[in-house]
Protein: Hydrogenase
Amino acid sequence: MTDIAQLILNLLIFPGGLFALVLGLLLAGIDRKIAARLQRRIGPPIYQPFVDLVKLTRKEMVIPATAHPGAFRLAPLLGLAGMMVAVTLIPIAGVYQGFTQAGDLLVLLYLLALPAIALMIGGSASSSPFGAVGFSREMVMMMSYELPLLVVLVTAALKVGLATGGIATFSLREIVQFQLENGPLFFDYTMLPAFLAFLAFIPGNMGVVPFDIPEAEPEIVEGPILEYSGAGLALFKLMTSLKMVVVLGLAVALFFPTPLGESVLLNLFWFFLKCLILMVISITVVRTSTGRLRMDQAFKYYLRYPTALALVSLVLTLLLG
Structure:
């Protein structure tokens, strides 16, 4: 199979496209169900995100008269396309090695910023004052949680690079292969602070409580996506589901990618189970047990704690490498 045909397959079927969309929507449904149970509610059925998506696609997409129509339509497509490409870069041990062999982490760092950029473009193009406020909040949030992510990725690259006789490797495939041969980085005490920093990064990147400040309903009524409806809103929902798969899959690949034998189906289920556990710990429990932070509180939190934890791992890696 040619590289182009393989890329199309990866984008549209597996691990991106259909597989990632189903997995992301399923995780979203489970998240809502567990959150409801933690709050002593029955909650919606697990398949509710699929139903919501179908309903949105059947509704009309209304564009405000004062909006910039081109940017308004382009924003959700930009975010969705970025996440579809990002999913193809995530290896699944025992199933899929990842599409590229070098520089995956650097590409992922840029691609993970696209959903926030898409929300900012959509909010600013809508001509809504709430969208403008959401734009500014989204930009500040992105600046705060991107720093610990960068330090974590550099630390993992240095850890594997120094252990294999080099300087740093930004190939996610090589990082996964190193762990298959030497054990998960999760069990390396020097990488434990980096893992905790990545856990703290997840709710901020996903925009859930207490970091849903750009879309705070009681304050700015959904912010950047306030004016979106129909297919446009559906694309943003799909983008969020894909982003969940990318973020959780990246955590699995960086810290504990070890498969269970050689069965593809068993390893797929194992990957899903690890993503589910990470989601419950970093998203479901966090958003059901905390209240919304102010913008300044969230910014200071990411600069102080996750960034400090990531830097501890980086220093330990450099000193003990």
User: Anything to note?
Assistant: The two ends are 40 Å apart (CA to CA). The chain has a mean pLDDT of 87. The CA atoms of residues 199 and 282 lie 6 Å apart.
